[in-house]
Amino acid sequence: MHKLWYEVPPTAGLPLRWRDLMPGDANLSAAIAQYLALPETQIECSGTAALVVALTALRQESARYKVILPAYTCPLVALAVAHCGLQPILCDLRADSFDLDHEQLSRLCDDTTLAVIPTHLGGRIADLAPVLAIAHRVGARVIEDAAQALGAYAQGQAVGSIGDIGFWSLAVGKGLTLYEGGVLFARDAALRQRLRQVSAQLVQHDALWELRRSLELLGYGALYHPLGLYLAYGRPLRRALRRDDPVAAVGDDFDAAIPLHRVGRWRQAVGVHALARLPAFQQSLRVLAAQRKPVLAQVPGIQVLDDAPGTQGAWPFFMLLLPTARARDAALEELWTAGLGVSRLFIHALPDYAYLAHLFHASAVPNARDFASRMLTLSNSPWLNEAQFARVVSVLGDAANRG
């Protein structure tokens, strides 16, 4: 029987080792550039901060003001757009997919569109070719949200380096982590220089923020294991669900204030140390995913979102679509608080968050709402053992059958 004090994380992050906490090379931007085979990258204090820098740089060079984003993505993307004084425009998804609806995207893009932000969701890779064609036809830029896809590749190219600009997150659960951090890249050398200049203008040193993040990173190092996660993640999750607050349970209750500060040398050195182990760790997750995907796909009514041909995603967790919202909720009722790594990603489509509603004009996004209502996530952590995985599969099968 599963022990309630043993908590599988909802996403497979890279655990830290004590040696990672030692001083060392603090040039994390160069180390990540080498890892991704890119000419250079720049480090920001979060993926959201990286997006703010990117949008600010584009806005300073253009009178365009609209930014198109998926109607189902991280709420922080919408908050970053609003933070920069730009207008977020929602595009619906394709049915049963996190990809943008290309027909609707084509209708939305015009000469007021500054950028389009497709999301590589959960380490799966978005279909970028149509997005690039549509955006570039009207002179808009494409900013890849690769926050959850560090180490993913499409046709041998690092995801996040295919559009005009890309950013990755180094937050908790994103594979490599500084507790909070971000990586920013632009394909064009002149635009990379512009991003560095804007960052120098916007982002200042803040000792208090850096102290807070350093202590949080130490806490991650101490508690990121099944016993520690029961205290740090499992108990707060259950408290939020007892209050009937799923937004708080998954951490979607974001503040509109976006911290902007420099990442200190010690946290960057931790990142450099841990990065050396990341390729082997991610390959082990791909192997584990390859073993478990067929088992999940054989459950009647379950759709496993998978890599497209020619792509190699990151696999922090599985995204599963159940046949109905009722079936999804039935599975969650039994599994969400069971400590088995089953969760939800983002609770709502963006216009359905009460604190975001004022940002959007009325828009029809039925596919995004349907996706939000039927999708759940299952951790790809190696800490989910075979017996626990079998239990999850059984519950999913029963729920899909009843749904």
Please, could you describe this protein's structure?
The protein is an alpha/beta fold. It has two domains: 19-202, Aspartate Aminotransferase, domain 2; 278-402, Aspartate Aminotransferase, domain 1. The protein is 42% helix and 13% strand. It is built from 14 helices and 14 strands. The strands form three sheets. Strands 1-9-8-5-4-2-3 form a seven-stranded mixed β-sheet, with helices on both faces. It has a four-stranded antiparallel β-sheet with strand order 10-12-14-13. Strands 7-6-11 form a three-stranded antiparallel β-sheet, with no helix packed on it. A hairpin with a 2-residue loop joins strand 6 (153-154) and strand 7 (157-158). The longest helix is centred in the last third of the chain and has 20 residues, at 278-297.
Sketch the major β-sheet.
7 strands, mixed
Backbone structural class: alpha/beta
Strand order of the largest sheet: 1-9-8-5-4-2-3
Uncertain spans: none
First-last Cα distance: 26 Å
Overall CATH class of the largest domain: Alpha Beta
Percentage of residues in strands: 5-15%
Number of domains: 2
Give the name of the CATH superfamily of the largest domain.
Type I PLP-dependent aspartate aminotransferase-like (Major domain)
Number of helices: 14
Rg over alpha carbons: 20 Å
What pattern of helices and strands is seen along the backbone?
A: HEHEHEHEHEEEEEHHHHHHEEEHEHEH
Q: Say what the CATH topology of the largest domain is.
A: Aspartate Aminotransferase, domain 2
- Inertia-based shape: globular
State the helical fraction: 40-55%
